[in-house]
Here is the input.
Amino acid sequence: MTSLPQRFAVVADIHGNRWALEAVLADMRKRSIETIVDLGDDLYGPLNLHETANLLADVPAIRIQGNCDRILLEANAVDSGSTIARNRASLTSDMRQWLASGQKTVICEDILFCHGTPWKDDEYLLWKLTAQGAVMRTQDELENLLNPVNQSTIVCAHSHTPITFHLVGGRNVVNVGSVGLPAYTDELPYPHAMQAGSPHARYAIFARHKDAWEAEHIAVSYDWESAACCAEKNGRQDWARWLRRGIASWS
Here is the structure.
């Protein structure tokens, strides 16, 4: 059990976007926020994982390991020309150790922090995947899924889509969105697209009001054109489109 201040920030899904991270950290400084919870997926992507890692090394934070953090540490065979393969080859021993240090879940007072769900780092909490794409879970489905969880607030990431979902019983599920990648598509287990709707860097600020936590979703402008150009230079036109628009579609 870790105690929290009355006000703190949560970031997630930075994905090597040091331009977005710099802007978010600057925004936090303006707001005098010192405590940060990082929900993972910090380095993977065709952007700038080394400068991102250097920035994060200087930021004390409670860290969760995301699915992409885990994948970068695995040794399974992948396409030698893929972003995963290039990222793995670029990791230093210090970066590997840092990625491995993240926990799967963290409980602080009455909040549970996770990357995907409390049980799986690569599963969406607020959405289910169907042959028709990503569909938001109903109140009943989410209540049943979270029945084993005792905490009143569950904070997650993975979908890159900022939203607060109020459950009938009084609990809240907060997805803080993505600092570094506002939209993407995936083909597994069914083709689907996730999107924030704009290219801004996203994070959330939590503040204690009486006996409950309230989340404020923050959208920060930054130099997303530089990030998109970097993605293009590294052969990822898809990332460049997502970074410029914050919109993705599966076709």
